[in-house]
Amino acid sequence: MSVNLYQTGVSGLLAAQQQLATTGHNISNVNTEGYTRQRAEQNASMGISNGNNYIGSGTYIQDISRVFNEFSYKEQLNSQSNLGYANASFEKLDQLNEVMSFSGAGVMTSIDLLYQAVNGIADNPSDTGLRNIALSQANTLASDFRSLNENFDQLEKSVNGEIENIANSISDISVQLAKINEQIMFGDASTQAGQPNDLLDKRDQLINELGQYTKVQTVTDTNGVMTVMVGQGSTLVAGITPITLSVAAGDPDPLQTELKFVGPNSLVAIQGESLGGALAAKFEFRDVHLAQVKSEMNRLSMGIASTFNDSQANGLNMSQQQGANLFTDINNTQLQQGRVLASSGNAGNLQARVNITDISQLPTDEFEIRYDGANYMMTNLSDSSVVTLGAPGSGPFNTGLGFEFIEDSGTPTTGDTFSIRPTENGAALMEATLNQGEGFAASSAIAITPADNNVSAGKVEIVNMLDPVAARAAMPIRVDILENPPGSFSYTLTDSSNVTSAPIAYTPTSQTLDIPPSPATTLFQIEITGMPSGSALHSPEQFFIDDAYGLGNGANAVDMGLTQEQSILAGGKDTFNQSLATSTSEVGSKASSSAFVADTSQALFTQAFNRNQSTSGVSLDEEAANLLKFQQAYQAASQIISVANTIFDTLLAAAR
């Protein structure tokens, strides 16, 4: 009996000792990140048969387990991934919002100042000082657009650097997780009945860190070895084999870096935006938000350049010559070729370019043109709509979107693809190309004056000037508009030699007419609006077109200034200022929304973290109570041993 009492006391002593050690371990790691509270699982030893009874033989510690709730842990992990995405998205959108708020505001100011200077020329076209001010403002505007584009480029480089850093961090985590799996599988832990708790804590801590960068899913086998999958189920750690992430130059755009999974014998590309977490937010910002606003600013710069260049071409400068371009030609060879990016995997040798035909219809979307063996197929990457352009050699190919695809040389091979960015480099390559203020084409070449006897509300206006110098030389011209018979309209032209053309029929509602008519070379175009008819059925209404050039003529500068209020972009819906204001407000709205999402994600993560900590975290109050309890158990077990020793001594004394 005394020997069993000794064993019982010793078992209690050892159990209390392990309980105290576990409690002390918990207290010591109360501030250790990723530590999960441990608990000594105590069981009663098998009783000893004594006659008809079983006499208890003490206790033992069955296991040192982690107090771990898998559901709350996975909830925390999922919230961690969402928080990583929300924080990364807000950080980058906030930076973009700052760029648009300051640099965008500078562009808007420069646009206004340029138009103010142009209006000054319209008021006093002979003042060379005003012309030089306008030229200076044009240079400032072009510089502001280039600076804005440089800010976009810096943001893109920054995001690419952050993507590479995250990829390196994920690769390091993958290697560490594989090593922990190896320790669990082949280390001393595999020969023990219990679990390597601190090793499991380290593994879960790495998984939590990984969750900031990407969505994570895990599966643990019967040996405790974990398989880790990221994103939509791509394996990152397969047992003891780590898969790493590498960054490669994009194709066809090398600046759009891509991710690849690197395995022992494989290299697989993966879409970064499918991975979730902060990594997906970086890709989404670069490829969606930044690309969109950059394209919008490129289109705005091209719209301004095209509009001013067209206005210049309509008038005459102080040297009585047709106005030269104020800004870089939006269809120069460098810009046209830069809008087409060929895939590195193309087997053909086609060289192509994109020509802008109508700036008002130009979208900000990106397209892909693929040769299917018979035709070029163009896909809008924003909405996945597909348009058949035609067979090779039958171009140029009009897309109906304000630009055309032109083959320069070479031929395509089936499967060849080309990335099409109609607005590419519009802001980056914008420059004021006019060298002298005298080059502003403030004067109109010709003017139309209605006859005093005209009685209708009909008008004849110049809508497109192709060659103002030649048009001026062809003056004067008289336009006689007739209605004969009723409801049938025609016009005649009487040239400077007093030769009158045969009647030319036209539609009275609104029609643009070439002057002079084909087959002669068109010098300008007029538009007849309304229904001009004389006081008698056959009495024509007359309009006189005459030379209007003069140093005091600012009519073309007036027309140039009026373009500020014209809806030129986005299908004729937005003025320049409206387009810029819309882009700026959209970025601000996205930044504000992302801030709200980030705050919400933080709150949800905090709740999930607290729920998990309520189970797995160390409570000093609870551990202090356990410390006293197990201390008393230790002292009581010691007392059992003392009693057993006294009994044993008594028996020995009786036997002497």
Set out the fold topology:
Blueprint (H helix, E strand, L loop, with lengths): L1 H27 L9 E7 L3 E3 L2 E3 L3 E8 L3 H54 L4 H59 L10 H17 L2 E5 L5 E5 L3 E5 L2 E2 L1 E5 L9 E5 L4 E4 L6 H38 E2 L16 H6 L1 E3 L8 E6 L10 E5 L4 E5 L5 E5 L6 E2 L4 E7 L7 E4 L22 E2 L1 E5 L8 E7 L2 H6 L3 E7 L5 E6 L9 E2 L4 E6 L8 E6 L11 E7 L7 H8 L13 H41 L3 H36 L1
Antiparallel strand pairs: 1-4, 2-3, 5-6, 6-7, 7-8, 9-10, 10-11, 12-21, 13-20, 14-19, 15-16, 15-20, 16-17, 18-19, 22-29, 23-28, 24-25, 24-29, 25-26, 27-28
Helix pairs in contact: 1-10, 2-3, 2-4, 2-5, 2-8, 2-9, 3-4, 3-5, 5-8, 5-9
Distance between the ends = 20 Å
DSSP summary, beta strand count: 29
Q: What level of helicity do the residues show? A: 40-55%
Largest sheet properties? 5 strands, antiparallel
Apparent shape: elongated
- Assign the structural class, choosing from mainly alpha, mainly beta, alpha/beta, alpha+beta, or little secondary structure: alpha+beta
Strand order of the largest sheet: 13-20-15-16-17
State the helix count: 10
Mean pLDDT: 91
What gyration radius follows from the Cα positions, in whole Å? 41 Å
Low-confidence parts: none
Tell me what portion of residues adopts beta-strand conformation: 15-25%
Describe what you observe in this structure.
The chain is of the alpha+beta class. The chain contains ten helices and 29 strands. It has helices spanning 2-28, 70-123, 128-186, 197-213, 277-314, 333-338, 468-473, 555-562, 576-616, 620-655, and strands at 38-44, 48-50, 53-55, 59-66, 216-220, 226-230, 234-238, 241-242, 244-248, 258-262, 267-270, 315-316, 340-342, 351-356, 367-371, 376-380, 386-390, 397-398, 403-409, 417-420, 443-444, 446-450, 459-465, 477-483, 489-494, 504-505, 510-515, 524-529, 541-547. It has a five-stranded antiparallel sheet. It has a five-stranded antiparallel sheet with strand order 22-29-24-25-26. A four-stranded antiparallel sheet has the order 5-6-7-8. It is elongated, with a radius of gyration of 41 Å. 38% of the residues are buried. The mean pLDDT is 91.
